[in-house]
Amino acid sequence: MDRWAGIAGALKAAFAAFDKPLWTVQETKNRVRVSLKESFPPMFGDRWEDARDIFYTAFREKHLDFVQPMPGADEALSAGANWPQGVVSNKAGAFLRKEVAHLGWDRHFGAVVGAGDATADKPSTDPIFMARGELRRAADGSGRSVGDTALVRVAARSAGGPA
Question: Are strands 86-92 and 111-115 parallel, antiparallel or unpaired?
Answer without folding.
Answer: parallel
